Amino acid sequence: MAIVRLAGAHALIQRANAVESMSRVDVLCLDKTGTLTTPLIELADIRVMVPEAELRSALGDLLASATLATRSADAIRAAYPGTSRKLASEVAFTSELRWSGLSFVGSGVSYCLGAPEVLLPCLAGAADTNVAGSVGRWADEGLRVMLFAATPAGASLHDGEGQPQLPEAMRPLAVLALREQLRPDARSTLARFGEAGVSLRIISGDNPDTVAALARQAGVKLDGRAVSGLELTGMNDEALGRAVDAATVFGRVPPSLKARLVAALRARGHWVAMVGDGVNDVLSLKQAHLGISMQSGSQATRAVADIVLLDDRFSALPEAVVEGQRIITGMQDSLHLFLARALYMALVILGAALAGLVIPVSPRHNTVLALITVGIPALFLALWARPARPGLDSLRRILRLVIPPAVACAALGLPLYAWYSRSSDVETARTAFTTFAVVCGLGLLPLLEPPVGESMSGADADGADIRPSLLALALLAVYGSFFLVDPVRTFFELVPLEVADWALILGLAIVWAGLVMAFWRLRLVDRVRSLSSAGGVGGRS
After folding, report:
1. Which CATH code for domain 2-37+183-320?
2. Residue 217: exposed, middle, or buried by beta-carbon count in 10 A (0-12, 13-18, 19+)?
3. Which of 221, 264, 306, 403 could form a disulfide with 18 if both were Cys (CB 3.0 to 4.6 A apart)?
C-alpha cells in the first residue's frame, strides 16, 4: 500500500526500507543543476577579449573537436558552431580538474576552457583585463561562468609525468556566462521541505557565489556564507562536520568531497537524503540513508537509488516525504494496538495458568478481540494517519504506549475473570473478560488520539482528532449488538450479561483508563528505564 501511494506521488520505490527512511529524513542534500534548475542551459552573455573571428574559430573548433559532452558545452556550441579538427593532444574535463583543454595538429597553441578560479592564476594580464571583475559580477547574478584561454605557443597541457597541468602566462580570450532556469515550482517545493521539518544542503560543482545566488532566488534562507570546496578539502572529519552543519550552500565540491559531506552529516546524527542525477553522484547517494535519483539520471545513479522521481518531478519529493511520514505513523499506530493486545493476553493466560484457571478466551472470543480491537481500528488508523516527524526512538515509543495499557488491562482483567470463574460458570467468566478486553482495547483509541487537547502518552500527536473516538463508540455499539442477535451471540460463544455485570465491567474500564493516564502522566516507564540504565552503568564501573 505504501509503494502504491508513493507511486501516485511520482516516487518509484526501489528499496523496501525507503518508506521508513523517507519518514525520518531531516536533511536533504541536492545539487543545483537539474534539481533546482531545469536541464536547459543557454549562453546568456559573453565578454570577448580578442577579435570576434579569432574567438569563433578557436572556441567553435574546440567544442566541435573535443570529447566534452556536457549541457554547458552544448549551449556554447549552439552559439559558436565550428569545424571538427584533428587533435594533437587533449585533456578531458573532470570534476576534480574543473577544466578541459586541447591542441590541434599543426598548431602550436593549446586552448583551455574551465572554471575561472582554476584558470585565473595562470593568466597573463588578468588584472588588466578585469577578468575577475566580470566573473564576480555574473556569479552574483546566479550565472554559471566559464573562462576560455589560449596557452603560449609550444606550451604543453601535461607535466613531465604525463599528468594534466595548466601552463603559465595564458592569454584570456573570453569570459562566458551561462544561464540556468529555475524550475517554476522550485520556490514552493523548497518551502514545503521547511514545513515538513527538513533542512537543505545545496552541494554543487559550480562557483559558490553562483549557487548561493540561485538558492536565494529559489527562496532558500542561507545559514552562513557559501563555502567553497577548496576550503573543505584539507579538513578532518570533525572539522568537516562542523562546517557542513553551519552552512547551507557549498560550491566547487568534487564527487569525493560530496560523499564526505554526506557522511559527515550522518556522523552528526542527521538522517540524510541525497538527490542526484549523474554518475558523479553515485558515491554520495550510497553514503546517504536515502538515495534519490531523477528518472532522466544516469543508469548507474538510478541503479543505486532507493527512490526514482518519475518525470523528474522534484516537486513530488516533499509530498513523498510527508506521505512517508504519514504511512509510518499509521503503521506505528497499528503496531501499538497489536502489541498491546498480544501483551495483555499473554499476561492473562500466564496468570490464569498459574492460578489453575481455565484459559480466559476461546478461539471465537479471540476472533472478536482481534476483529473489534485490532483489525478494524488498524485499517482506519492507517487511513487517517497524519504526517509527523519521528521523535522518540522506536523501543522507547513502544514501551511507553504498549506496556501501561497492557499491564493495567491484565492487572484488572485477571481478577475479574477469576471472580466470575468462582461465582459463575466458565462461559459467563469468559464473556465478562472478553467484554472488558473489548472496552479497554477500544478505550485505547481515544487515549492515543484524544478528541480534544493533547495526548498524555508522550506520542508525537499532531492536534486533536475526534474520528478515532467516534470509531471506538461505533465498534463498541457493534459489539453490544452481538448480544441482541441470538445467532451471532451463539456463534461467538457469548452469553447474556446482567446490568450489574455491565456496570462492573464499565467501572473497571474507567479505573483502567485512570491507571493508564497516570502511568503516562508520571512517565513511569521512562523512569524505570532510566534507573535500569543508571544501574547498569554503575554496575560496570
Report:
1. 3.40.50.1000
2. middle
3. 306
Burial class (CB in 10 A: 0-12, 13-18, 19+), 131: buried
pLDDT of the chain, 541 residues: tens digit per residue: 667 777 777 788 888 778 778 878 889 998 887 778 887 889 999 999 999 989 998 999 999 998 767 788 889 988 999 899 999 999 988 888 889 999 998 888 999 999 998 999 898 866 556 788 888 899 888 899 999 999 998 889 998 888 999 999 899 999 999 998 888 888 888 888 888 788 999 998 888 989 999 888 888 888 778 898 888 988 898 999 999 988 999 998 888 899 999 999 999 989 999 998 878 888 999 999 999 988 888 888 889 999 998 888 888 788 777 777 787 778 888 888 898 899 999 999 999 899 888 888 889 999 999 999 999 998 898 888 777 665 545 667 777 788 888 999 999 999 999 999 888 889 999 999 999 999 999 988 888 777 765 554 444 445 577 888 899 999 999 999 999 999 999 999 899 989 999 999 999 999 998 898 888 777 765 566 555 555 554 444 3
The residue type found at 430 is R
C-alpha 241/C-alpha 331 separation (Å) is 33
> What's the CA gap between 416 and 410, in Å, rounded?
10
Phi and psi at residue 230, in whole multiples of 5°? -65, -30
Rounded alpha-carbon distances, angstroms, from residue 455 to 24, 443, 444, 467, 520: 22, 13, 11, 14, 9
Task: Find, among 66, 32, 59, the residue nearest to 212 by Cα.
Answer: 32
**Backbone dihedral angles phi then psi of residue 116, each to the nearest 5 degrees:** -60, -40
Put residue 269 in one of left, alpha, beta given phi > 0 → left and psi -120 to 50 → alpha: left
Which DSSP string corresponds to 271-321?
-EEEEE-SGGGHHHHHHSSEEEEETTS-HHHHHH-SEEEGGG-TTHHHHHH
Give the span between the Cα atoms of 350 and 346, in whole angstroms. 6
Q: Which CATH number fits domain 39-157+164-182: 3.30.2350.10, 3.40.1110.10, 2.40.50.140, 3.40.50.300?
A: 3.40.1110.10
- Residue (of 233, 189, 178, 242) closest to 215 by Cα position: 189
Distance CA 317, CA 293 (A): 11
**Cell numbers standing for residue 376:** 478494524
- Domain extents for the chain? 2-37+183-320, 39-157+164-182, 322-540
d(C-alpha 488, C-alpha 500), whole Å:
23
